[in-house]
Amino acid sequence: MTCEAYPSEAMLAKALARRLIDLVARRPSIVLGLPTGRTPLLLYAELIRVTRETPVDWSQVRTFNLDEFVGLGAGDPGSYATFMRERLFDGIGVTPTQVEFLDGRAADLEGECARYEAALARAGGMDVLILGIGINGHIGFNEPADALVTRTHRATLDDRTRAANALWFGGDVSRVPRAALTMGMATILSARSIVLIATGEAKSDVVREMLDGGVSTRVPASFLQLHPQVTVMLDELVADGLEKCRAISRR
Ligand code: PGA
Question: Which residues contact 232 (CB under 8 A, 6 or more apart)?
């Protein structure tokens, strides 16, 4: 894993936005895997800002989101589909035909997960997958457990994850769904390259565990150690707590 530390979250977002836009220019039909949550907000705002200033051709890009709440679908205000439309897709002109989302309201959730895996395979897999990390070490909604599930599946959310998501439900944790559909660990590791972003002091302990601990289902993000092409992008608040992380390159 390559670690890069940036002086601020804003500078990290700018650097990653630049890198993604360069990739899209070189490969217009790139397949992206995308996250929701607080972590990618500045990145998405920066992608919108740059797209307004300099033309970027997003018209052939395909996107797959990591996860969606069970019970919420594209039209629900709390759904991740709505988050993505409002925070990124509308701002850069990516249309619904380019976007794949898990449908948390599907009648047959298992069938929905299988459909998603098939759509991803048909698209040729993800070229670049962007990830955040939960304070409990999850990626997507692969929560710490005795065993992880390989492919896209229904996951029960743990209390810390539901608390972290209350923000999107008016601060009311009781409104946060108890389950979600998520790409599995093998689905995540099938991406050809992965960028994990971690910002804010609260993430420093879990990032240290991810980087310096062994591979453990109790820290699902540690499985990224098994992938040959992972870049971990940190702000100073996370990087400062990581004296032990070798080969950090300061930007
Ligand atoms: P956050 O969530 O970006 O809101 O911190 C990250 C995650 O749970 O993956």
Answer: 1, 2, 3, 4, 195, 196, 198, 207, 210, 211, 224
| 240 assigned to active site | no
Q: Which atom of ligand 1 is nearest to the CA of 161?
A: 8
Say how many Å lie between the CA of residue 48 and the centre of ligand 1. Answer: 20
Q: Is 223 exposed, middle or buried (0-12, 13-18, 19+ CB in 10 A)?
A: buried
For 27-48, the pLDDT digits (tens) are 999 999 999 999 999 999 999 9
- Cα-based torsion angle of the residue sequence 31, 27, 233, 177 in order, rounded to the nearest 10 degrees: -20
pLDDT of residue 244: 54
Residue 142 has pLDDT above 80, yes or no: yes
Residue pair 112/74 in contact (Cβ under 8 Å)? The answer is: no
Amino acid at 166: A
Distance CA 235, CA 214 (A): 23
State both tokens at 3.
């670690």
Mutate to test the pocket of ligand 1, among 39, 65, 68, 69 (most ligand atoms within 8 A of CB): 39
Query: Which residue type does 227 have?
Result: H
